[in-house]
Amino acid sequence: MTHGPADFPAHAIRDLAARWLPRLGDDDFVCSPAGLWLALGAVASGARGRTGEELAELLGVAVEEAAVAVTAAARSVGATDGLAVATGMWSKVPVREAFRRGLPGVRWGVLPGAAWFALPDEVLGATDDVSLGEIAQDAQPELDAWVRKATGGRIERMPLELDGSEELVLLNALALKASWLTAFPGHLTRDEPFTDGYGDTWPVPTMRRRIPAAWVWYVDGVTVVELPCRGSGSGSVSGAGPGPGHGVGHGDGGALVRFVLGPEGAGPADVLPAAWAGTGERRALEADAADLALPRFTLRTKTAAHEHLPALGVGLALRPGADFSGLSPADLMLAKVVQEAVVEVAEDGVEAAAVTQVTMARGAAAPRRQVVERVAFDRPFGVAVLDSSGEVPLFAGWRQSAPGSRPAEPAESAGETP
């Protein structure tokens, strides 16, 4: 079922996340459902026919409305304090002016090898204000520099190097740097045991602090802990909200980071969706507060998302004969869709970034004694970074191994393109 842009963004990205997560396996990973949606949504706005129908079904928005929805989505999630969103597109084939106008926030550029003599005036599009002298013979340094700037240096280069076969490259970047509303006291961080998904127990640096009961709730046996980040209005936020998931950081513009802990043996596809479950699905913590023990950790992975697309119902776009005639008069198909993402959680706050690369080729109660619950993330767990509305999963990750136990950063998810 597809929807118009007025229904976007939350349901569409959540639906894509729920369908994508089972394809990512049970080992360590971090991904950006929002980044993948924005990147595919941009190219989908130029898809037509059956190709467009497949992409519309995956993205939850009609391709005729995709450009408007992508622009609205980028503006909506970009309103989260500390989050930057950017998109760039470089091409050696003509890009239709209507496609370009539909994506007003995109940075446009030209790849080496553009056939200038073959570009009719009515379809020059992205190339009509660029001279031959401005085109570098090697676009790799320019695009890598764009990635570094867009992610604040958290990702150094494109997920895939250019090999000259690309007719068009789209890059979408999200970058977040945010401080916790209340930092973890550094002197309380100490090694505590963490039992990884392979049954081994390791000592890992674990942060500790007491948090309000309203920051903890349960969804079908999954424990959810929400840590709000500082926003422009965070100075007026009280320590406890009116109920599970209500009022902690909402309305002040700060990102919301949720950590999810499932029953022993539960995998990411079963556990992570609890991070964005609606309030009607939540059960409150039956205590006055919680003592939180959370590992300090970093996740970094690269994912070949194009290998997952056929299982998600998108096949025509990946084969010769794909119809992207609304984007360019050239015959184009999706060659590769690769995403690199990183999330780092420490005492002061959270940093996260993702770059999605789409390469196209031709073809209050009375005082009483407090009850305090201990919530220890001492086994595999998930992390989700959401926008300030608490509805859009910007980043989603799974920690299977013990943080620091293996030289696993950067890790590679199943299906990565070498």
Commentary on this structure:
The structure is a single chain. The protein is an alpha+beta fold. The protein has two domains: 236 residues, Antithrombin, Chain I, domain 2 (2-Layer Sandwich), CATH 3.30.497; 161 residues, Alpha-1-antitrypsin, domain 1 (Roll), CATH 2.30.39.10. 17% of the residues lie in helices and 30% in strands. The chain is built from seven helices and 18 strands. Strands 1-17-16-9-8-7-10 form a seven-stranded antiparallel beta sheet. Strand 16 and strand 17 form a beta hairpin. Helix 2 packs antiparallel against helix 3 and helix 2 runs antiparallel to helix 4. The longest helix is centred in the first third of the chain and has 16 residues. The chain is elongated, with a radius of gyration of 22 Å. About 10% of the residues have low confidence.
What percent of residues adopt helix (DSSP H or I)? 10-25%
How many separate domains? 2
Topology order in helix (H) and strand (E) letters: HEHHHEHEHEEEEEEHEEEEEEEEE
Main sheet attributes: strand count, strand direction, barrel closure: 7 strands, antiparallel
Question: How many helix segments?
Answer: 7
Strand content: 25-35%
What is Rg?
A: 22 Å
The CATH homologous superfamily of the largest domain:
Antithrombin, subunit I, domain 2
